[in-house]
Amino acid sequence: MRKLPLWADFDQEDLDLLLRTGAVRLARFGSGETIVEEGNYEKTFFVLLRGVGRIVRGGRLVADLDTPGTIFGEMSFVLGKGRTASVTADTPCDCLAVNMGYVDFLPSPEREDFLIRIFRRLAVVVTQRLGSANARKAALLTAIRERRQTLAAHIAAERAAITTLRRELDGLDTSDDEEVLRQLLNRNY
Question: Which residues are in the Cyclic nucleotide-binding domain (predicted)?
Fold first, then answer.
């Protein structure tokens, strides 16, 4: 547990207390099992230790969950509202489940200290996540812009080709040949 960045600000005594009280426990999920359900309010968030899952919001895939140490499900606790997405295990997953309801039972100074340390770590996680998402958005917007430019150039080239073909078609005068053919067909031999 100590190797995970989430717990960098905690000493071993704090970590032992979290484990003893059940505030942090190992949670195992089978393939296809829902870990977090969109809309549910819970004070538990998770740290992926092993496995692969997917994050879905409103029926659309938002992200793959495949990096050990990834924190997910924290928004419900932080925002005080229902989960913003569902997380489903694609393979068997082992996670640390962190029940923040435990904090409610700590004495005031300890509770505030604990929350400050957790929120500090969560702020780093969310900032990194936003940075990655913004970089991905920028890359996608650049790709869209490049595709539009390519498409516009392709459309312009096709229009020019069609114009050339129309000019050639307009230049073909077959009326004389049609008249000759008609005359030949009307002759009696």
Answer: 6-99
- Residue-wise pLDDT for 82-109, tens only, equals 999 999 999 999 999 999 888 787 778 8
The neighbour count for residue 166, using CB atoms within 10 Å, is 10
Asked if residue 95 lies in contact with residue 29, where contact means CB atoms within 8 angstroms, the answer is yes
Pairwise pLDDT comparison (10 vs 147), residue with the higher score: 147
Residue located via tokens 């002759």: 187
CA distance 7 to 143: 38
Taking a C-beta distance cutoff of 8 angstroms, is the pair 37, 88 a contact?
no
Instruction: Say what the alpha-carbon torsion angle 132, 81, 111, 131 is, to the nearest 10 degrees.
Output: 10
Q: Write the CA distances from 35 to 69, 72, 81, integer angstroms.
A: 16, 10, 17
Written as one letter, the residue type at 53 is G
Domain ranges of the chain: 5-107
- Residue 113 is classified by DSSP as H
**Distance from C-alpha of 130 to C-alpha of 93, rounded to nearest angstrom:** 25
Q: Are the C-beta atoms of 40 and 96 separated by less than 8 Å?
A: no
**Residue located via tokens 């053919």:** 181
Domain 5-107 top-level CATH class: mainly beta
172: helix, coil or strand?
A: coil
Looking at the DSSP bridge assignments, the partners of residue 34 are 88
Residue 109 DSSP one-character state: H
Residue with tokens 């700590």: 106
In this structure, what token pair is assigned to residue 172?
Answer: 């073909």
